[in-house]
Design goal:
This protein has about 290 residues and is α+β, with helices and mostly antiparallel strands. A six-stranded antiparallel sheet has the order 1-10-9-4-3-2. A four-stranded antiparallel sheet has the order 5-6-7-8, with no helix packed on it. It folds into two domains: about 160 residues; about 120 residues, Rieske Iron-sulfur Protein, CATH 2.102.10.10. The chain contains nine helices and ten strands. The longest helix is centred in the middle third of the chain and has 29 residues.
Length: about 290
């Protein structure tokens, strides 16, 4: 897998496939397939049905008199594999290049498995159950390899993980000095730090100071290099959009919200702490010296 990650041989195919996936007009359906509504990628959940069906079919293949039931499960797996693949490809198109290289191997293994199960189903439909069982076991081996590669992507490469999850643990709920109000020009996102953690600060025209974690929860992109519009900031890497007031992800591919901070201003000194449920809106320059919590 390390060799696959660093090999550039398939990069033309990666670029072509990504362009095709991104060009498909899905509208809000893209966020649905990403799993933004669920709070984490939906693809790992969707693959349970085809894999579970095929595993169960493999068991029934060795139980006398269960040929028709096994064939039904193979068919259910084939149907369920289609939306699972759609979600997988949608997520894949928004990954880093090394992850996408491994993702091609993952997709290829699963595609081989689906094709083998298609042959298995056709054989079973003709009453050739022994042959169907053989092709089914071959398909199970292929999708098992695909599952192992998918595990590498998830647990070794952190594909689909929340890349801002560590922020609350590192910063806690204490107040941290952010800087002087004059350090942050109105309307422009500015990268700063709370302790060692990078944050993006937006001082808007009303005097409100907004602060969210700078590393995008999707793939760690620098939000401070993104565009601020209508109270949101858009990641420059993959286009995830977050509300500055509370960090909520209003559009994907990010499935997790961005850690947001409550601010207070004493004179011109800005302090910030991790936003809590009891917190009010961030402080404005017009309410200097007041704790909004």
């Amino acid at each position: 897998m390390d060799r696959v990650e660093h090999s550039e041989r398939a990069d033309r195919l990666v670029d072509a496939a990504r362009a095709v996936v991104r060009a498909i007009p899905m509208g809000r359906g893209r966020d649905v397939l990403h799993g933004r509504w669920l709070g984490h990628p939906v693809h790992p959940l969707m693959v349970q049905l085809p894999l579970g069906s095929w595993m169960s079919a493999a068991v029934l293949d060795f139980v006398p008199g269960q040929q028709r039931a096994a064939r039904t499960l193979v068919g259910v797996g084939l149907v369920a594999a289609l939306p699972a693949a759609a979600a997988g490809w949608t997520d894949w198109a928004e990954l880093r290049r090394q992850q996408m290289r491994v993702g091609l191997v993952h997709a290829a293994s699963n595609a081989v498995g689906v094709a083998l199960y298609g042959v298995s189903f056709a054989a079973r439909a003709r009453g050739r159950f022994a042959r169907g069982r053989m092709w089914g076991l071959a398909g199970l081996a292929a999708v098992s390899v695909g599952g192992a590669v998918g595990g590498h992507m998830a647990f070794r490469q952190a594909s689909g993980a929340n890349h801002a999850e560590h922020v609350p643990e590192l910063l806690g709920t204490d107040w941290h000095r952010l800087g002087d109000l004059t350090d942050f020009p109105v309307g422009a996102p500015v990268r700063s730090h709370l302790g060692d953690e990078p944050v993006v600060v937006v001082h808007d025209s009303s005097g409100t100071v907004r602060v969210v974690a700078d590393r995008c929860s999707h793939m760690g992109g620098p939000l401070s290099e993104g565009e601020v519009t209508e109270g949101c900031i858009r990641c420059p890497w993959h286009g995830s959009t977050f509300r500055l007031s509370d960090g909520w992800n209003t559009s994907g591919p990010a499935t997790a919200a961005q850690p947001a901070f409550t601010t207070r201003i004493t004179g011109t000194l800005i302090e910030a702490r991790l936003q809590r449920l009891s917190d009010d809106m961030p402080t404005t320059a017009g309410t200097a010296g007041q704790d909004k919590w």
